[in-house]
Design goal:
45% of the residues are buried. 32% of the residues lie in helices and 18% in strands. Pfam families: Fer4_7 (PF12838), FrhB_FdhB_C (PF04432).
Length: 390
């Protein structure tokens, strides 16, 4: 029976839930809104399959990369809807065109982040764009195993822990011999934020605008392209609000992505970062290139396995070789975990008080340097000083 400090070390990947043959494990929300496993001891038969697939108890072994590139799709419309260069979209499209399936994070009708699997372009389109909140895996991992056993090919995208969970489940299940038919993709992950915090922010924001949110894009490029993307909030009333993705930004982005106030505990010491053979490809932003074909976004792609390298080279045109050391320099989160905010407890204490209006004064929980950064941005000197400091 799986047993460790779930509050501190569980990533919520749902691998244990997905493999349990007696349905003795359920994923339930903890006080902070994160899903963690709950075990029905009366149903448990101590088969220990949950222990075998757990990404915390079985951290993947590191290995050398098989390839590294930059990539930008030639389709401008596709890039506008993607967070970076649309590498994920083109990889998924290749799978669908070959009769395969795609699985990734989508917004449902209530703007909750969930994982979904399908074989249509519409499914792929809904997986585009970063959600910046932890997704509910539901039964997607189970669905992947079923699909593989039917000899389907599948491309899966998720955070490093979710991607590792997909691999662990496949190789420890009756679908293990079909692992070659799965391409497992991990995004470069900052750390996941609490769905409860997202619901609180959404409720506060809807009250502020007197209308329900019907659409959200945290990396909208329609105004100024990739170099300066915007958070686009669309409301049932027809109102559309644009706020810079990065400083000065939406209070959601600033509090959760910049200062990690709502980040899951396990993300501060991630078990699944880096290059390992549980993951075939890693995708992320390549901000060093935002001119020319990169105006609407550029992706960096890292192949962790020969299988991933072959798939990237067969499904994507115009790959440009890139030194892995350059990726690490610009985006150390490939290998390093995010920092835990010293104000995290205070944030959740206020969140759990049930008063959503605390978002009005959320800046009080930011570090002292924030007010100086805000002033420098306002007078147009922040970017220059940041460049000088390096």
């Amino acid at each position: 029976m799986i047993d460790f400090d779930f509050e501190e070390f569980c990533s919520g990947c749902a691998a244990c839930y997905s493999i349990c043959p007696k349905k003795a494990i359920s994923m339930q929300k903890n006080q902070e809104g994160f899903l963690i496993p709950h075990i029905d001891k009366d149903k448990c038969i101590n088969c220990n399959l949950c222990n075998k697939v757990c990404v915390h108890l079985n951290p993947p072994s590191k290995r050398n990369i098989s390839g590294c590139w930059t990539y930008a799709s030639k389709n401008s419309n596709v890039k506008k809807k993607s967070s970076s260069g649309a590498a994920w979209f083109e990889i998924g499209k290749h799978a669908i065109n070959e009769g395969g399936l795609v699985a990734g994070c989508v917004w449902n009708k209530e703007l909750r982040a969930i994982h979904s699997v399908g074989n249509s372009m519409q499914t792929l389109i809904t997986t585009q764009g970063s959600k910046y909140v932890q997704s509910d895996m539901g039964d997607v991992l189970k669905d992947i195993v079923i699909a593989l056993k039917k000899n389907n090919k599948i491309v899966f995208s998720g955070t490093p822990c979710q991607a590792t969970a997909a691999h662990n489940l496949i190789v420890n299940s009756s679908a293990s011999k079909y692992r070659e038919n799965a391409i497992i993709v991990a995004v470069i992950c900052h750390g996941v934020s609490s769905p409860l915090a997202w619901e609180s922010f959404k409720t506060w924001d809807e009250a502020k605008h007197h209308s329900k949110l019907v659409s959200i894009n945290f990396r909208d490029k329609s105004k100024e392209g990739y170099k300066k993307s915007y958070c686009r909030y669309e409301y049932e009333s027809g109102e559309i609000v644009y706020l810079p993705t990065f400083l000065p930004s939406s209070k959601w982005m600033e509090s959760t992505i910049v200062y990690n106030l709502a980040m899951r505990n396990a993300c501060a010491h991630c078990d699944c970062k880096g290059i390992h053979n549980s993951i075939d490809l890693i995708l992320g932003d390549w901000y060093s290139q935002y001119k020319g074909e990169g105006t609407l976004g550029t992706s960096c792609i890292i192949a962790c396995t020969t299988r991933g390298k072959n798939y990237a080279e067969s499904s994507l045109e115009n790959l440009h070789n890139l030194e892995y050391s350059s990726v690490l320099k610009d985006n150390p989160l490939v290998e390093k975990s995010s920092f835990a905010s010293p104000q995290r407890k205070q944030f959740f204490d206020r969140l759990l008080n049930g008063d959503n209006n605390f978002w009005d004064s959320i800046e009080k929980l930011y570090p002292p340097k924030y007010k100086y950064k805000k002033i420098l941005v306002k007078i147009g000197l922040f970017g220059l000083i940041k460049k000088i400091i390096g």
